[in-house]
């Protein structure tokens, strides 16, 4: 598992690429081994993930009759949803790159997507914490949530342009593939597994 120092370097590399500085790529391990190790990002994202599951659990409990609980299976199902929504878009990105004849870009894009999720997961975690502690600010949290999502899209697109040059259509397709299926699948899987409060 990458150390805290390594993760800091990866995030710094992404920041430099976001700023348009090519030296940022030197701080990333975009080899196949680096791609596999980048999935440790999920463990680094675990604290804000667990916080989000707790928040979702409390929202779900509010829809149930008083005294009715869910048990640990609720959190297992949430983890399952999270894992599927993390992996499937990356698989789809691989297929998309193969279609465009750019398979060699796959490791770098997976590395970017995985490590970029770390700072954004913690940013979302802060918003969830605010929503839990200060429910009256729910409207403000929703606005900040949208701003953060737009920021993620903008950041990912800027960094992608470094690896996929002069291919605006592909960059757009990659961003849509990373975000849209995950959002749709999350909603569908939560309903299917019975962990949706709606």
**How do the SSEs run, as a string of H and E?**
HHHHHHHH
Averaged pLDDT: 90
Radius of gyration, rounded? 18 Å
**SSE-based structural type:** mainly alpha
| Portion in strands | under 5%
Low-pLDDT parts are none
Distance between the termini: 37 Å
Anisotropy-based shape: globular
By DSSP, the count of extended strands is 0
Total number of distinct structural domains: 1
Total helix count? Answer: 8
What does the largest sheet look like? none
Question: Helical proportion?
Answer: over 70%
Keywords: Membrane, Transmembrane, Transmembrane helix
Organism: Agrobacterium larrymoorei
Protein name: Yip1 domain-containing protein
Give a written overview of the molecule.
The protein has 198 residues and is an all-alpha fold. The radius of gyration is 18 Å and the shape is globular. It is built from 8 helices and no strands. The protein has one domain (4-192).
Give a quick summary of the entry:
The chain contains eight helices and no strands. The chain is an all-alpha fold and 198 residues long.
Summary tags:
single chain; mainly alpha; 198 residues
Write the layout of secondary structure elements.
Elements: H1 4-18, H2 32-37, H3 41-44, H4 46-61, H5 73-99, H6 106-133, H7 138-163, H8 168-192
Helix pairs in contact: 1-6, 4-5, 4-6, 5-8, 6-7, 7-8
